[in-house]
Amino acid sequence: MRFSDQKPIFSQIAELLENDIIAERIPAGARLPSARDLASSLEVNPNTAARALQSLAELGVAQVERGTGYYVSEAGAAKVREFRKRSFLDEELPRLFRSMADLGVTLEDIEARWRGFIASATEKKDGIS
What we know:
Elements: H1 9-22, H2 35-42, H3 46-58, E1 62-65, E2 69-72, H4 76-103, H5 107-125
């Protein structure tokens, strides 16, 4: 895997695991890969992988069970969504607003696109394509 220079590798690994948690590919209560397995599969130092797992535990996304490893907490997916929502509202949305102002994009433009997106997503979810 190629990692970005924009943020620490352990953060990027934690983000990969978070993606799997919110997509329910790793459900609540499931065991996360060990630091050794993560390190091997991602070709990183085991300490880096361990730091990623520890960061998930510090956020309450995972819990450690001595001797057996890290597990997704019951509230893990909700915590990831909450953290990402806060980040989106505080960091990404202001950038979007600046771009909208620069380009003359209105809230009505955004609302029309949003409604189209939701309709398309609902059709795909219901198997209508």
